[in-house]
Amino acid sequence: MTLKALLFDVDGTLADTERDGHRVAFNRAFAEADLDWDWTVDLYGELLAVTGGKERIRHFLNLYHQEFLKQYPEEELTQLIKNLHARKTYFYTQLLSEGAIPLRSGIKRLLDEARQQNYRLAIVTTTTPENVTSLLENTLGKESIEWFEVIAAGDIVPAKKPAADIYTYTLDKMDLSADQCIAFEDSSNGIQSSLGANLKTIITQNHYTESHDFTGAVVVLDQMGEPNQACSCIDGDIDGASYVSMATINYLHNK
What we know:
The chain has 255 residues and is an alpha/beta fold. It has 10 helices and 7 strands. The protein has helices spanning 18-32, 41-47, 53-64, 66-70, 74-97, 107-116, 129-140, 165-174, 188-196, 246-254; strands at residues 5-8, 120-124, 150-152, 181-185, 200-204, 219-221, 233-235.
């Protein structure tokens, strides 16, 4: 089946947003609310086992602050978490506007090449629509929002990754079958989601996902790479290339 569309995760895939973006923003939101919670680099790595920011806060409280949970009725707790997450999103977009979170190696080049060759593009992520928009606008320009036919983000489906729902939603919206697309992910939750929708998946791992299980990926890389900055294959091959191009992606899709 001919490749027609590229489906991109965001956090950790388009940009290395987690450690120096979302984590910092969460801590700023906590400090603003006079909460003495500090998500260190290592702790945040553990919390990333749960997808979705609001879900991550609740998971953290269940693990480390059971007494805090007991102070609030469920409805009030849900609103508190929602408010914290909203402020975290504000601080995250502030970091983006300051240029603190660049795209990963090879991403802009690959998007440009895909568009030049008329491939369809989509975003498939558990992060909020606001986070996606802010990242794209601050790294690729405001017009880049229009590059993506579908931006499936946040709570658009009830079950977040590792459930396959957000990918099946995207395929339905694009009226494409899984074998006409390829997914780009960086984590075990991500690849479980994409494989659950029967999508071939390219992995670019990062600091937080080096030890994840990527069984089923067509290739696992350290980055997409550039002509002057070779990528490394951790598992699989890219047909002797030193960086990922659309020719490489078609090779992987046809494997």
